[in-house]
Amino acid sequence: MFTHQIDAHLALKLMTEEDADYLFDIIEQDRRQLRRWMPWTDATQTVADELKFIRFARQKFASNEMLPLTIVIDGLPVGCIDLHRIDREQQHAEVGYWLKAKAQGHGVMTRSVNRLLTIGFDELNLHKIMLRADVDNHPSQAVAQRLGMQQEGVLRDHVLVNNEFRSLVVFSTLENEWEAHE
């Protein structure tokens, strides 16, 4: 199975149906915080909903349109990270992620995104990887900034979250910039 060990405790593994119960439990525990940023939160009301998403993501993986990964600490899921909207012809993709509240603030997401960018450039031969973060989600923006991603601009009122249009800050890095960063 596809697994990238980041350190002795942290790894990224291909998302599987076995992750559904763990991931749904995290969503339930952190629903209030996730709901603030993630438009899919309200639609994920049962383990079956999470399982449906995992199956969708695996289909996208099979068609080379997505790389859906589970973030695990000591073998237990703590969140998800992916490359989505993978465009092989134009050689670009976008990063998406979320993390259990109790795992935040310890560099888990920065190290996970760092590894995902390396996978995107080294293994998927991408030229550009983008990351979008809510204008008020400063921790998510800080991940992009710590990794040397460049802010490209703001997509005004771009996503509907909780019946409110939210603006997104767009960051990106190019393959040659990533190589210099590494």
Automatic annotation (TrEMBL):
Domain N-acetyltransferase: 10-175
Alphabetic keyword roster: Ribonucleoprotein, Ribosomal protein
Gene Ontology cellular component list: ribosome
SUPFAM superfamilies: Acyl-CoA N-acyltransferases (Nat) (SSF55729)
UniProt entry tagged with the keyword Ribonucleoprotein: yes
Name by which UniProt lists this protein: Ribosomal protein acetylating enzyme
Organism of origin: Furfurilactobacillus curtus
